[in-house]
From TrEMBL:
Ubiquitin ligase protein which is a component of the N-end rule pathway. Recognizes and binds to proteins bearing specific N-terminal residues that are destabilizing according to the N-end rule, leading to their ubiquitination and subsequent degradation. It comes from Microcebus murinus (Gray mouse lemur). Its EC number is 2.3.2.27. This is E3 ubiquitin-protein ligase. Residues 1005-1033, 1265-1291 are annotated as: Disordered. It comes from the Eukaryota. A zinc finger (UBR-type) spans 97-168. Keywords: Acetylation, Chromosome, Coiled coil, Isopeptide bond, Metal-binding, Nucleus, Phosphoprotein, Transferase, Ubl conjugation, Ubl conjugation pathway, Zinc, Zinc-finger. Coiled coil: none annotated. GO terms for molecular function: L-leucine binding; ubiquitin protein ligase activity; zinc ion binding. Residues 1266-1275 have a biased composition (Low complexity).
């Protein structure tokens, strides 16, 4: 069936291919009715090409379409072969200077913070690098797709609009030239024809809505019954739901379903079934039924295949048009013309209109194709961009409404093009004036928010889900409004004024609907039942914040507009609150002989709202007026007379009182929604247009009122009027009858009110309020932030409000107020306040939260103490108010204010009788301070003394008036300065008195006119000075004592931290000199130390005592005592691997006996060095296990460790561990001391003896093998066997270790085996000892690498955990044979031995090029005792060690010589002179001879010796470490310090001659034989003939990949990366392996694979091949380092990229340029080298439990 279909298709293909494009085009040229002709052609061919089966075959379709459909069009258009025609067009073209590159998802984009007109103006990477902006302050982001490069758009850039590439063309085109002049008439006409037909066709078919019927002119004669069941994308159903449904509905596999779902998500639709109508209909109904339960069902259509075919071609056609117009700007213009030409149906009938208007009905794929076409045509043509903008604006309302009801994200909607159009200043201005765009946007927005309350205000309460959804979508309109306003006009035309004000009207209507929304009433008695909705209103406010600010900015630019806007705003405010006195009783207030009328209104009893945007806008405009010239020159033009100050202040005041009452705890029963609202009201995101403006409004109102009246109204609103208006009210009030809570409440309210007064007078840093500029304002913010503590750049940015361009203005002033402190290896760069700025600190800064305020107070007092100053924090000197606000200062000297101050001071004086608080007093003192500063300023600035009307000092010197006759404020202050209960405030009171006197002096000196003097004060002065001096002395002593105590405390603290650091954070830092290992070694004098062999330096036995961390008991490490163990972590490792493509395929069959020199997979053992009793550990581990099982049942969560795999955390340091190593004494000593040997064989003899023993063992082994079957022959063979002298194979030595130690030997051995091979534990497997030796060798090698890479001495001070680990590991590996069957170990020895000394029984051994010699050495040395223990001939273990070592060393030398490349032969042909050089040359000649001259070249001896020395160093170093730990011989002091290579010292320590080659000469008899056998190996030959590869020496250390200096080039690289599995799709989370540089498509369905039965993401899968389970990645989009280990473990790590402020940007949220920090990258590399990745993850997960919940395996 299938094959039949295929041949059929092929047959058609053949037919189709015979049709010629040229001929078709020719026919068209002749046609009278071209449209009909073309349509017939399409009607016939399109269904024959597209949609011929269930699965799309895009390549074939494309090929045929090009041949049959597009080809003819191209011929027609060019009038000749397009292969010539198009290049001609291209040549004639004068390309535009716009770049217009459309961004891919994830592509880096750049915006210049200095020159971009707004943040939406971006450059592509290429343009950016060629522009002037690369040296400016720029921001980098990754594109979400869509949008294009603005290079060349002069309106987008204040400076440097062209990059180098696009600048080339600008000189030629100055004026707007018609691009059509470059085309011939014919081409224009033909292009016009064909574009018109094809564009129309595409629009028609894409917007076609019938499912089985084609447009009449495309209908086919014969119609097959072939349909598609088409599934459409929606944003409601999840991936999982769709996949599940599809599996059910169309019976496909999960993989296919994933494929369908992925395509649906990407393209917006995908056919899921092909067949007859019935068949498709059936699938449709299943899908609909299955997805309609909770939500609306998935959209499915059964469509006739020919419709789908035409639609597919329609899309193809649009992309084709897009590429054709790339040849010439003329063609592009024609397309624009065609697209915008009005059709026969008039308005909205152009093709462009039709597409736009059906946007929401199209599927995603179709939308993005035509959006792209619009961008590359309409938006690239300056003339048509304008026309298109008009069309867009005219359809705006409809498009937005479509978008609001559509469920696709905005990026897939045509509405999203607004950003491209509205941000062009000239277009925006044109659309405002000609299309009234501002008004349209606002009205459209309002239309979508119809839900209002009785007063016509927005009401968000009880929103349905649909309304909420709509509300979310409609917010994007605010963004459009922002775009329109973002560039401010430089010139105003009358039309612009008129339309702007019209828009302003509409905007006021909007704000009016917000004024007073979400009103609240204080809940008394019961707690509210349901938290009222508040978020929607705040969302709206937040989104509008920038728009409101921008409206003000616009108004500020034109005085006429400003005044008009002010009037309009005022009128609307009157409408809102015109009748605010209605129904409310008027009352009269009076204090100190002043009285005022107001209304009775209590915030705590009536409705109050936080939303007052109209009042706040008016406040903003008022400040602008105050700044303008009109305010001084023609105040009569201002509508100030219409203002009613009490009306202005009423609502903002209520709002501030509400905050105070909430703070006083009066609104507790109103729940969290109110707390949240108050929080946001002050928050940096909202405060600029909320809290700040309320303060301004109060300042405005107060500046126009009698200060006494103002204060009385304020007292009344704070509900404190009674307290201050009734004499002695305070006393009564405090009596025991009053409830304590009420006292507390009132105290807080008084504090809050005083705070508010301080703010009204002190907050004058906005231009227009006082004589400051914008920079002063931002400086002040920064000073106050840094007064709390030093801050990082990003922290500071977060605390400052951003403008619509996301700028805080911080960079321009930060240098003036702060020092920058660079970051170290961790942490970030910090800004510190300059000391000279401290004097500008205001404790009552209005943007402080309470916590910040107290922190700042503490920090500033501490600073003052450190500087040995008094701790008073007086108010700073303030800039003078602008004239409109000047009268505000009179509040300070108003009678009511003085009365309030006096009352509170009086309470403080008689402190026991009243309810008062220190904070209250502190605020009064601050206010007095402010008044004094003010008066001083006035005096200093006044031209003539009598101008000064500010006479605060006089007023506070006067005693209170009748009837109280209280003392003067000054007198009270003097009393208070000695009050013992006010110690903290003494410095402040003293400062006030000092300043008072200073002012008096100024007054006296400048005037003879008597100031009302308070005589007492002057008389007291001298005595007070004396008193002051005495107190100062005492204070000094007290301070010194305090400081001493503090110093002691901090010393103790530091100690504590240090100790804990050592205990808990013993990092693997090699330079940590925490323990000097060598200190414990016995004193050995300067004599040469030898680590092995018969001449080994004898070290006196040392007794070792250790303490168990669990039971704290001390115990000696002895052979027969209970085992002591170290917590250890065994892991597989590829850190040293030279071949990452290699990994163990079948662990069950893998033979690890020989390690390949590529070290592709090793087993690493690490330890934190903490010691326990074996039984204590066992008990601990059992309890962990039990606890974990219980926990897992309860919570089903992963922990940072996997108990089932034997993992646990070290009980002391929580370091991840998975086994324990026993502590042992040097195991050789136990055996070596058995006999005293005298005569020892030389190497040749020894090899012969061992060979004999090996031979004997082999025969015996055979014996045993056959003994079971035929016992008769047994004895016969036995006779044949000549046992070498003294060899007793039947002897089995007694194991000297205690049971407990033996058990631990087995435990650790099994763990190494299990982890290293990833198999089930089996202690009897013969591979167990091999794995132990291997881990010992590998761990030593990795340590040697780290030391070499860091130029550290081999035996320098190692951290003790490392030292302990290596010692235990080596001794363990040496003792392990005692718990294994002797014959197994002997077998291993024989095989290892045979690799160097061949015998006929082992044939499949690797050649010497394929053996890592250090692994071989360790294996041979550690297996040797198993043979030697049966040897009673008198050969000692030490002799064996020495000979083995020499033999392996020589093999290594041969290996080095064979593999060293001989190319660098040449210029420095020095004569070989030294002994070594001559010897090595001779050896090389021997090799040359044995390899049959295959060894090429004859380098100089000097070269060869150099190479041998360099190549063998790592081996010698590893050997030195190995024998050092094995035999316990201290290291020679020379190797303990870094410096020269120590070659000679190493040789002597290792019992080697300095001339290594002499080893060969001494043993030449046997060595020649061996060398010959090595060289004759086939593999060696193949290598020498260049047929295979071999590792050469020294092996270079592995490094992490090189990273680029500039992070954006990584982003760029990743944006070009597409998912390897889903054909060219961009990867969403491209992730870079830092080990091998592979880019992976992480965290995505497409690249999931199965690993050991689990679905895992690309990263996890990669760790298994690249890092044997552990991996280090960089998530490029997030700029985040990812550590992974195993399937379930991972953590994020800070990336090695920093911005100029020394901060990382995880998540790339800030977009500052990032540069590679080499030190941090080295640190990551070090973690990798040290095998600490898993440990890092463990610590991170322990510290942050949320990391445990992340689904690491799917990354
Ligand atoms: Zn560009
Ligand atoms: Zn450019
Ligand atoms: Zn710039
Ligand atoms: Zn213990
Ligand atoms: Zn530990
Ligand atoms: Zn993928
Ligand atoms: Zn890798």
């Amino acid at each position: 069936m299938a094959s039949e279909l295929e041949t059929e298709v092929q047959a058609i293909d053949q037919n189709l291919l015979e049709c010629s494009a040229e001929e078709t085009a020719g026919k068209w040229l002749q046609a009278t009715d071209l449209t009909r002709e073309v349509y017939q052609h399409l009607a016939y061919y399109v269904p024959k090409i597209y949609c011929r089966g269930p699965n799309p075959s895009p390549q074939k379709e494309d090929m045929l379409a090009q041949h049959l459909l597009l080809g003819p069009m191209e011929w027609y258009l060019c009038g000749e072969d397009p292969a010539f025609g198009f290049p001609k067009l291209e040549q004639a073209n004068k390309p535009s200077h716009l770049c217009g590159r459309v961004f891919k998802v994830g592509e880096p984009t750049y915006s210049c913070r200095d020159c971009a007109v707004d943040p939406t103006c971006v450059l592509c990477m290429e343009c950016f690098l060629g522009s002037i902006h690369r040296d400016h302050r720029y921001r980098m982001t990754t594109s979400g797709g869509g949008g294009f490069c603005d290079c060349g758009d002069t309106e987008a850039w204040k400076e440097g609009p062209y990059c180098q590439k696009h600048e080339l063309n600008t000189s030629e085109i100055e004026e707007e030239e018609d691009p059509l002049v470059h085309l011939s008439e014919d081409v224009i006409a033909r292009t016009y024809n064909i574009f018109a037909i094809m564009f129309r066709y595409a629009v028609e078919i894409l917007t076609w809505e019938k499912e089985s019927e084609l447009p009449a002119d495309l209908e086919m004669v014969e119609k097959s019954d072939t349909y598609y069941c088409m599934l459409f994308n929606d944003e409601v159903h999840t991936y999982e739901q769709v996949i599940y449904t599809l599996q059910k509905a169309v019976n496909c596999s999960q993989k296919e379903a994933i494929g369908f779902a992925t395509t649906v998500d990407r393209d917006g639709r995908r056919s899921v079934r092909y067949g007859d109508f019935q068949y498709c209909e059936q699938a449709k109904s299943v899908i609909v039924r299955n997805t309609s339960r909770q939500t609306k069902p998935l959209k499915v259509q059964v469509m006739h295949s020919s419709i789908v075919a035409h639609q597919n071609f329609g899309l193809k056609l649009l992309s084709w048009l897009g590429s054709i117009i790339g040849y010439s700007d003329g063609l592009r213009r024609i397309l624009c013309q065609v697209g915008l030409q009005e059709g026969p149906d008039g308005e909205n009938s152009s093709l462009v209109d039709r597409l736009m208007l059906s946007d929401s009905k199209l599927w995603k794929g179709a939308r993005s194709v035509y959006h792209q076409l619009f961008m590359s045509s309409l938006l690239m043509d300056l003339k048509y961009k304008k026309l298109f903008a008009v069309r867009f604006a005219k359809n705006y309302e409809r498009l937005q409404s479509d978008y609001v009801t559509d469920d696709h994200d905005r990026e897939f909607s045509i509405a999203d093009l607004s950003v491209q159009i509205f941000t062009v200043p000239s277009l925006a201005r044109m659309l405002i004036t000609e299309e009234n765009l501002m008004t349209i946007i606002i009205k459209t927005f309002m239309d979508h928010l119809r839900h209002r309350d009785a007063q016509g205000r927005f009401q968000f309460e009880r929103y349905t889900a649909l309304q909420a959804f709509k509300f979310r979508r409609v917010q994007s309109l605010i963004l459009d409004l922002k775009y329109v306003l973002i560039s401010k006009p430089t010139e105003w035309s009358d039309e612009l004024r008129q339309k702007f004000l019209e828009g302003f009207d509409a905007f006021l209507e909007l704000l009016k609907c917000m004024q007073g929304m979400d009103p609240i009433v204080r809940q008394v008695g019961q707690h509210i039942e349901m938290e009222p909705e508040w978020e929607a209103a705040f969302t709206l406010q937040m989104k509008l914040t920038h728009v409101i600010s921008m409206m003000q900015d616009w108004c500020a630019l034109d005085e006429k507009v400003l005044i008009e806007a002010y009037k309009k705003c005022l009128a609307v405010l009157m409408q809102c609150h015109g009748g605010f006195t209605d129904g409310e009783q008027p009352i009269t207030l009076s204090i100190c002989g002043h009285s005022v009328e107001t209304i009775r209104y209590c915030v705590s009893q009536e409705k109050v709202s936080i939303h007052l945007p109209v009042s706040r806008l008016l406040a903003g405009l008022h400040v602008l007026l105050s700044k303008s010239e009109v305010a001084y020159k023609f105040p009569e033009l201002l509508p100030l007379s219409e203002l009613s100050p009490p009306m202005l202040i009423e609502h903002p005041l209520r709002c501030l009182v509400l905050c105070a009452q909430v703070h006083a705890g009066m609104w507790r029963r109103n729940g969290f929604s109110l707390v949240n609202q108050i929080y946001y009201y002050h928050n940096v995101k909202c405060r600029r247009e909320m809290f700040d403006k309320d303060i301004v409004m109060l300042q405005t109102g107060a500046s126009m009122m009698d200060p006494n009246h103002f204060l009385m109204i304020m007292l009344s609103r704070f509900e404190l009027y009674q307290i201050f208006s009734t004499p002695d009210y305070g006393k009564r009030f405090s009596s025991e009858t009053t409830h304590k809570d009420v006292i507390q409440q009132n105290n807080t309210l008084i504090e809050e009110m005083l705070y508010l007064i301080i703010m009204l007078l002190g907050e004058r840093f906005s231009p227009g309020i006082a004589q400051v500029n914008a920079a002063d304002e931002i400086k002040r913010e920064i000073i106050h932030q840094l007064s709390i503590k030093p801050m990082a750049h990003s922290e500071l940015v977060k605390s400052l409000p951003e403008d619509e361009n996301k700028e805080t203005g911080m960079e321009s002033v930060i240098e003036a107020v702060a020092h920058f402190r660079k970051p170290g290896l961790t942490g970030r760069g910090m800004y510190e306040l300059k000391p000279e700025c401290a004097k500008e600190f205001n404790l009552y800064f209005y943007h402080y939260s309470r916590a910040e305020q107290s922190k700042a107070e503490e920090a500033q007092r501490k600073l003052k103490r450190q500087n040995r100053e008094d701790t008073a924090l007086p108010p700073p000197v303030l800039p003078p108010f602008c004239p409109l606000f000047a009268s505000l200062v009179n509040i300070l000297q108003s009678d009511v204010m003085l009365c309030i101050m006096g009352t509170i001071l009086q309470w403080a004086v008689g402190h026991n009788g009243y309810a008062w608080s220190e904070s209250m007093l502190q605020r009064v003192l601050h206010l007095i301070g402010m008044a004094l500063q003010e008066e001083k300023q006035h005096l200093e600035n006044a031209v003539e003394e009598h101008d000064v009307t500010f006479t605060f000092t006089q007023k506070i010197s006067k005693p209170g008036e009748t009837p109280n006759n209280s003392a003067s404020i000054l007198a009270m202050l003097e009393t208070l300065q000695n009050a013992p209960y006010l110690e903290v405030h003494k410095d402040m009171i003293r400062w006030i008195l000092k300043t008072f006197n200073a002012i008096k002096k100024i007054r006296e000196s400048s005037s003879t006119s008597p100031v009302a003097e308070a005589e007492g004060t002057i008389m007291e002065e001298s005595s007070r000075d004396k008193d002051k001096a005495e107190r100062k002395r005492k204070a000094e002593i007290a301070r010194l004592r305090r400081e001493k105590i503090m110093a002691q405390m901090s010393e103790m603290q530091r100690h504590f931290i240090d100790e804990n650091k050592e205990l808990f954070q013993q990092t693997l830092e090699l330079d940590a000199s925490t323990s000097a290992v060598l200190d414990n070694s016995p004193m050995v004098s300067d004599m040469a130390l030898t680590a092995l062999g018969p001449a080994q330096t004898q070290v006196p036995e040392q007794r070792q005592f250790v303490t168990c961390i669990l039971c704290q008991e001390e115990q000696e490490v002895k052979v027969e005592s209970k085992a002591m163990v170290l917590a250890a972590f065994v892991q597989r490792s590829t850190v040293l691997s030279k071949n990452r493509s290699k990994f163990i395929q079948d662990p069950e069959k893998y033979d690890p006996l020989f390690t390949h020199p590529d070290l592709s997979c090793g087993t690493h053992t690490g330890s934190c060095g903490h010691i326990m009793h074996a039984h204590c550990w066992q008990r601990y581990f059992d309890s962990v296990q039990a606890k974990e099982q219980r926990r897992q049942q309860r919570l089903r969560l992963h922990t940072s460790y996997d108990v089932e795999n034997g993992e646990f955390l070290c009980p002391l340091c929580e370091c991840l561990s998975n086994t324990v190593i026993p502590l042992l004494l040097p195991p050789r000593n136990i055996f070596n001391s058995r006999l005293n040997f005298s005569e020892q064989p030389n190497l040749t003899q020894w090899i012969r003896i061992i060979s004999q023993q090996v031979q004997a063992l082999k025969l015996l082994r055979k014996e045993e093998g056959t003994s079971n079957t035929a016992s008769s022959e047994n004895s016969e063979n036995m006779d044949e066997l000549q046992l070498p002298e003294g060899f007793r194979p039947d002897f089995h030595p007694k194991n000297p270790y205690s049971e407990s130690i033996k058990e631990m030997l087995t435990t650790f051995g099994t763990a190494t085996y299990k982890v290293g091979l990833k198999v089930h534990p089996n202690e009897d497997d013969p591979r167990v000892p091999i794995m132990c030796w291997g881990s010992c060798a590998y761990t030593i090698q990795s340590i040697e690498r780290i030391l070499s890479d860091e130029d550290k001495p081999l035996f320098g001070p190692l951290p003790c955990r490392l030292d302990d680990c290596l010692r235990s590991l080596t001794r363990f590996a040496a003792a392990h044979w005692t718990v294994v069957s002797l014959s197994v170990v002997q077998g291993h020895f024989c095989k290892l031995f045979a690799s160097l000394v061949p015998n006929n029984s082992h044939e499949d051994l690797p050649c010497i090029l394929d053996i890592d010699m250090f692994h071989l050495l360790v294996g041979l040395v550690l297996a040797f005792p198993a043979l030697q223990c049966q040897d009673f001939s008198g050969i000692s273990l030490a002799t064996g060690d020495l000979h083995i070592f020499h033999l392996v060393t020589m093999a290594h030398i041969v290996q080095i010589l064979l593999t060293s490349c001989t190319e660098e032969n040449g210029m420095d042909q020095e004569n070989s002179t030294t002994e070594e050089e001559l010897a090595v040359l001779a050896l090389y000649k021997t090799l040359h001879q044995y390899t049959g001259s295959a060894l090429k070249g004859m380098p100089s001896g000097w070269h060869l010796w150099r190479r041998v020395r360099a190549g063998i160093m790592p081996f010698l170093k590893c050997s030195a470490l190995f024998f050092h730990y094995l035999n316990g011989v201290p290291s020679p002091p020379d190797i303990q310090v870094s410096g020269t290579s120590h070659f000679e010292h190493l040789c002597s320590y290792l019992s080697l001659p300095n001339n290594l080659i002499s080893l060969f000469q001494e043993n030449n008899e046997i060595m020649n034989l061996l060398i010959e056998s090595w060289c004759h190996n086939n593999e060696v030959k193949r290598y020498l003939q260049g047929e295979r590869y071999a590792i050469s020496y020294p092996r270079e250390s592995n490094k992490l990949i090189d990273l680029p200096e500039d992070y954006s080039s990584l982003i760029n690289q990743a944006s070009n990366f597409s998912c390897p599995k889903s054909g060219g799709d961009k990867s969403r989370a491209p992730t870079l392996c830092l080990v091998c540089g592979t880019l992976l498509c992480s965290q995505s369905y497409c690249c999931q694979t199965e690993l050991e039965g689990d679905d895992v993401g690309a990263c996890t899968a990669h760790t298994y091949s690249c890092g044997s389970g552990a991996g280090i990645f960089l998530r490029v989009r997030e700029c985040q380092v990812l550590f992974l280990a195993g399937k379930t473990k991972g953590c994020f790590y800070s990336p090695p990229y920093l911005d100029d402020y020394g901060e990382t940007d995880q998540g790339l949220r800030r977009g500052n340029p990032l540069h590679l920090c080499k030190e941090r990258f080295k640190k990551i590399q070090k973690l990798w080298h040290q095998h600490s990745i898993t440990e890092q993850i463990g610590h991170a997960q322990e510290a942050n439990q949320t990391l445990v919940g992340i689904d690491w395996q799917h990354l």
